[in-house]
Specification:
The protein is of the alpha+beta class. 39% of the residues lie in helices and 19% in strands.
Length: 490
């Protein structure tokens, strides 16, 4: 999404771009795939900012992509399950605040304070982002005009919530979507969490009829309509520079060279900066710098085609968030240790949103559990196959506690592991969210999109602002702005 958004904006600005994609289709880790009549999303649940009035939707409207696709807007996040709570969360903070006050009446004052504070944060954040004044001047004014941005950037989510809420169960409920960022609340940046929270629980979200590959395909088609070029099945292996540390072009795995004044890399930052650039001293410098940064957790995803509608076995909403415990640190440790019988689960039936994704009378279920990379990296082929099946069986058994009879209705099953993420998505250690969104690596501390190579910029989850389709879209459009500014000054 980062590369496509960047390419779309640059092509629309009249620049001649060449987009190189190592896979046979656009979309990277977020594509859709088919198995025996079932269409599965490789990684996405739905996308915030994609509904009418959202930032991604505005981008698609502006550049003529929207008429090529059909949007399915959602009015609720879905069902959230804890050991003592089971509720449907809608996509607006007003109803959420009212619901939480009903569930936790003793915490009414703290709940009111929490929502009041986050609304102030959003005003300050939007004010900072939308201000037309030069960036350096905005930074000088940040402590005075937008203090809540600084405050949230300095706190973990746990610190931010605990200041207002005493009940541990309520704190856990408010932190539910930490899994969408992959960091437990005790380390997760409150700044990035609040941005994701508004997108998932505070505003409408949307899905694409036919699957998200339709969106990426439409974006690629529009880029070509603007007169630019896309080449698939072509991986960049080297970024070429001159003696003054300026980009000259790229070399591909097929031995071809393409010259350009600007390169934007949506590949992971580790490979881009420590493998691809041809300047030995810079590579060594970045290797030392990036080795100090913490990578995110990985994931295991089980794709299931059922021979019945999922509602028949208890999937009452398209989205189900299963939380095995109120202790998110414990849940995170279980994920790191690959204890998938006690991990949190993010479950989606996209065929409830778009029945055409499954054969008539059947359904799809995508189950994601965060997972540690350790333990997967040293397996032999046979050991890998065995562990893959054991983990899938464990996740299915875990989910069957909430969807009785699940295992007896499985017609198709596929499994993606941390090694899958590493091999096919070229994510080091299967890090699905790029560098971890801990406080020291979030907000202004995030890896910059500007590199030490003149004319080389970064896009995607590893750089600013961070992970998620919406975050990557922002990084892509910001990278386009950086490129346009750079070219203007040449």
């Amino acid at each position: 999404m980062g590369g496509l958004s960047c390419g779309l904006k640059l092509a629309a600005a009249g620049k001649k771009i060449l987009l190189l994609e190592r896979q046979p289709v656009a979309g990277g880790v977020a594509t859709s795939f088919r198995r025996r009549g079932f269409t599965f999303e490789a990684s996405l649940h739905y996308v915030d900012g994609l509904a009418s009035g959202g930032e991604i939707r505005d981008l698609l409207d502006k550049y003529g992509v929207s008429p090529k696709i059909e949007f399915i807007e959602l009015q609720e996040f879905g069902r959230v399950i804890y050991p003592q709570h089971d509720y449907v969360v809608k996509n607006d903070f007003i109803s959420l605040e009212a619901m939480l006050k009903d569930i936790f009446p003793a915490e009414a004052a703290g709940i009111k304070k929490f929502f009041s504070d986050i609304n102030v944060f959003y005003r300050h954040f939007d004010g900072f982002m939308d201000s037309p004044i030069p960036y350096w001047l905005k930074m000088l004014a940040l402590p005075i005009l937008y203090p809540q941005v600084i405050k949230a950037s300095c706190l973990t989510l746990e610190q931010y919530i605990t200041k207002k809420i005493k009940d541990k169960r309520l704190r856990s409920f408010l932190a539910t979507i930490w899994g969408f960022v992959g960091v437990a609340p005790s380390e997760l940046s409150a700044f990035y969490f609040l941005i994701v929270l508004r997108g998932c629980w505070g505003e409408k979200t949307a899905y694409i009829k036919g699957g998200f590959s339709k969106l990426f395909g439409a974006m690629a088609e529009r880029i070509k309509e603007y007169g630019s070029e896309i080449r698939f099945n072509m991986a960049v292996t080297e970024i070429l520079t001159d003696q003054s540390r300026c980009v000259k072009g790229v070399r591909t795995d097929k031995g071809e060279e393409f010259l350009a004044k600007v390169i934007i890399s949506n590949a992971n930052a580790v490979d881009t900066l420590t493998k691809f650039i041809d300047h030995a001293a810079l590579k060594q410098s970045y290797l030392q710098k990036l080795s100090l940064l913490k990578k995110s957790i990985s994931a295991v995803t089980v794709y299931i085609g059922l021979d019945v509608p999922s509602k028949q076995i208890g999937m009452s909403c398209p989205v189900l968030s299963v939380n095995a415990t109120y202790d998110h640190d414990e849940a995170f440790r279980n994920c790191l240790n690959n204890d998938h019988g006690h991990c949190n689960l993010a479950v989606v039936d996209h065929s409830q949103l778009d029945p055409g994704l499954a054969p008539v009378g059947k359904s799809t279920i995508c189950v994601m559990s965060l997972a540690g990379y350790s333990g997967w990296d040293t397996l032999t082929t046979e050991e890998y196959k065995k562990k893959k099946k054991e983990v899938a069986d464990s996740i299915v058994a875990n989910l069957e506690k909430y969807l009785p009879g699940l295992s007896s209705h499985i017609e198709v099953i596929e499994v993606g592991t941390p090694k899958t993420m590493e091999r096919f998505a070229t994510l080091p250690e299967g890090a699905v969210y790029g560098f971890s969104q801990i406080v020291a690596q979030s907000s202004l501390n995030r890896l910059s999109q500007v590199t030490d190579v003149k004319g080389l910029f970064l896009a995607g989850a590893w750089t600013r602002p961070g992970c998620g389709v919406h975050g990557c879209q922002v990084s892509g459009t910001d990278a386009a702005d950086l490129a346009l500014d750079f070219l203007t000054k040449q």
